[in-house]
Amino acid sequence: SAHGVLHSHVVVDSSQVVCIPSECPLTDEQLSVMPVVCLTVIYSLKYRVHLRAGQTVLIHAATGGAGQICIQYCQHIGARVIATAGTEEKRRFLREHLGVEHVFNSRDTSFVNDVRNILPNGVDVIINSLSGPLLKQSIKLLAYHGQFVEWGKRDVFDRTALSMFDLRSDCSIHVIDLISLSDKQQDICTDMLEEMVQLFIQNKLKPIEPTVIYEPSQVKEAFIRCNSGQAMGKSVVRLTNSSEPLYVNGKPSAAHLSTGNHAMFPLEVCQQGTILISGGFGGLGLTMSRWMIEKRGVKHVTLMSRRTLVELEQASNPQYDDWLKLKQISKTYDAHVDVVQVDVTNFDQVHNLMERLNQSSRPVRGIIHSAVVAEDRSL
Predict the structure, then answer these.
(1) Per residue in 3-43, pLDDT tens?
(2) Rounded Cα distance, 146 and 165, in Å
(3) CATH number of the domain located at residue range(s) 14-201 in this protein
(4) pLDDT surpasses 60 at 258
């Protein structure tokens, strides 16, 4: 897998590629979602937890792609699965399609008593993607020497929320970061990819259900489905096998690549918007303006400064030569540079400028804050 999304082509090291044999029963769209999902599951259960047959595993929010593969992998190993899901429809799906006997509610803490009723001593492994109070209640369900696998990210970055683990010194916590793993231990990732392919060929793992496929013109609908909180399975935007171009904000994605595939400078920024630079009369602001016009195709720049244009164009001004170069570059590349006298520390002045620019045909699409105040002192 390569970093980033919505690419028709990616460049990766050959060591990161595995062959998909013709006997693999999955379609390209079904396969596209599998590497991240399967590697997360295999790394968690095989390399970190060392899951064994007969152990009990509680999987939270299990109707997602990773949850479904996790259930199947546990069943392949011979572990007993208990799951949670947010709606009755999702809970019924897990019972009927994946054969999970005990499925409880993940939207409140009722699952704690439900799990205790069938497993008074707790579970051996918890696969967690919940956060806040639900996460804190989950930790209470770990059996002696249990293992807690964290797939969510919200509480990983909140150190105070993780202090609860100090209360269970007998237990282990594993925070799974697949991006770091792929950067630092690519050989393990390659081994897991090969194992993934074999598991599908042997029918030990099955495709994620449903895998909903969208055409490039439906990319907005795909993201809406993902954010709805009601979706199960995976959403896939078909690019390579589609005859449609990908449109973002009404413009073909090919136009976004015309400036050298620089994500910070798409068409909306370079040609249809204004770059606003505070401290625009300084050396950094003038040099940055020249670079954006010459190297990134930016067509509209507004320089904001407490000084006036008259002061800028005085030969005694230290930035006079930079200003002349910028004027020449803007003329050569048919760009437009505006100069406005605005104090960046004055809220009303800045607000009025933003209002005026955003009501024009070239609204603000980027801001560079380069204003500084120098206070000279004797040494």
Answers:
(1) 666 676 777 888 888 999 999 999 999 999 999 999 999 99
(2) 12
(3) 3.40.50.720
(4) no
Calpha distance 130→142 (Å, rounded): 15
CA pair distance 379, 142, nearest whole angstrom: 63
Quick check: 73 and 42 in contact, CB under 8 A?
Answer: yes
- Spatial separation of the C-alpha atoms in residues 370 and 215, rounded to whole Å: 42
CATH for 253-369 (3.40.640.10, 3.40.50.720, 1.25.40.10, 3.40.50.2300): 3.40.50.720
Cis (ω within 30 of 0) for the bond into 35?
no
Report in angstroms the alpha-carbon separations of 291 from 287, 294, 338.
6, 5, 16
Q: For the residues of 189-224, what is the DSSP string, one character each?
A: HHHHHHHHHHHHHTTSS---S-EEEE-GGGHHHHHH
Element at 367 (helix H, strand E): strand 364-369
DSSP structure class, residue 16: G
Whether this prediction's pTM lies above 0.70 is answered by no
Residue range 177-218, pLDDT digits in tens = 998 898 899 999 999 999 999 999 999 999 999 999 999 888
Instruction: Give me Rg for the CA atoms of the chain.
Output: 28
Tokens 């269970």: give the residue: 168
Amino acid at 211: T
> Can you tell me whether residue 306 is helix, strand or coil?
coil
Query: In which residue ranges of the chain is CATH 3.40.50.720 found?
Result: 14-201, 253-369
CB 369 within 8 A of CB 284: no
